[in-house]
User: What shape does this take?
Amino acid sequence: MKRTCVRQSKEMDDNSQTKNDRKDPKVIAKLVTEGRYGVPYSPKGTYADLRIMSPIRQRTMEQLISCKNRLNRWFSIYFPEYEQVFGSFEAKSSIILLKKACMPADIVELGAEGVNRIWRDAKLRAVGMKRATTLMNAAKVSIGQRQGSEAARMEMELLLEEYEHHKVQYEKVMEKIQELCSKIPESKQMLAIKGIGLITVAGFLAEVGDVRRFDSPKQIQKLAGLALKENSSGRHKGQTTISKRGRARLRAILFKGVIPLIAKNEEFRSIHAYYIGRPEHPLKKKQSVIAVGCKLIRIFYAILTKKVVYDGQKMLEDIHRPLKAA
Assistant: This one.
């Protein structure tokens, strides 16, 4: 039984905020006899593995991002012009070069020929003398800090080792997640929706578990905290908002998954445009994203329970648009 339920009910009998070991058992016993409790759901099989892997992926990604941020900080201090030449330090040619020469003085000492030789020895064809010359010219006029260069080289070496370690970990985690999703046949149809990625599908399955335990998609919507709530009394009509009760991680997965879905999928973009531009009761952009997220829940529910194939045109026909007055 959730502690929130006990905390919210403990004042009903004696109108007191008191909480102690004598009072709590009475409150819990009364709630149990009245059936006012919920049984927690524990996923099994593949769903249990996905629920464990989901936070592991999140944690590994955060560690990788943290390492990238520290590398970007290094460049801003010692070689700010570097990313103007490469765009991103993550390119294979960039990583190979940084392991041998990272400071501007090192690049100048090697010269364009020396830089290009490093890439030729590594059998890289995407870069050549033109990129090497541009990099050398940038190194000559660099405004980066020159003091402490020995320690800066050591820091770059450690950061690259950490970056590659976290990158390998993340790739390994994503391979495992993909393997687990492949054990759920319906996930293939979910991934077939343009704009839906593996992270969204895996996150949804991890947080919801086996959807066959739900009688309708509205229950999943409630689980995600996307059910509507209203505070009204008498003539006063309060603002309608989402409840934000349930699994916050599921709500975040849906919200983050809908953003690229609206950008890449024509059908979902059409629905979003309708919601924010309809003549009566238009939604704000964030409200529309939530509404599209609820639509995505219904689509996932249909795919997982009825084993249907996603049909964008049928989805558009299901949107109820009020008829214009003649």
About this structure: Residues 4 and 10 are 10 Å apart (CA to CA). The first strand starts at residue 228 and ends at 230. The two ends are 56 Å apart (CA to CA).
